[in-house]
Amino acid sequence: MTSRFTELTIDCHDPGILAAFWCEVLGFQVIDRSEDKVEISSWEPTIEDIQARQMPPTLHFIRVPETKKAGKNRLHLDVSPIDRSTEDEVARLLGLGATTTDVGQGPGRSWVVMADPEGNEFCVVRTLAPKK
């Protein structure tokens, strides 16, 4: 038997605010919450589900006292809009509190680098919406 990728943990100052932002971005729901931690997922997997097959990981937001260090994250999320253009998704995410950011990607890229409300970078990549 092998291991499964089950969670991605994101250190932050306010797990509730960051989890709410990412729930809106991804259409996820909160599946576990405590004072210093919030876990979100597209659905609540059981141990048996995870053991039986590779499942999408959950996101854990954990309260930490330190701030994000300056510089590009070495690990980040990429998101692909499924029902709109990349440009329209970027506009929606800006409305949710994301910002665009420069990590040295240069002009003319097919993706947009953004940051969540606590400055964690992520990319909006190609749309998966059906062509009209």
How would you characterize this protein structure?
- The structure is a single chain.
- The protein is α/β, with parallel strands linked by helices.
- It folds into two domains: 7-63, 2-Layer Sandwich (Signal recognition particle alu RNA binding heterodimer, srp9/1), CATH 3.30.720; 77-124, no CATH class.
- It is built from three helices and eight strands, in the order E-H-E-E-H-E-E-H-E-E-E.
- A four-stranded mixed β-sheet has the order 1-4-3-2, covered by helices on one side.
- Strand 2 and strand 3 form a beta hairpin.
- The longest helix is centred in the first third of the chain and has 12 residues, at 15-26.
- It is globular.
- The N and C termini lie far apart (44 Å).
- The mean pLDDT is 90.
Shape: globular
Low-pLDDT regions: none
- Beta-strand fraction estimate: 25-35%
SS class: alpha/beta
CATH class descriptor name of the largest domain: Alpha Beta
Assembly classification: single chain
Number of strands: 8
Run of helices and strands: EHEEHEEHEEE
Percentage of helical residues? 10-25%
How many domains in all?
A: 2
- The first-to-last residue Cα distance is 44 Å
Number of contiguous helices: 3
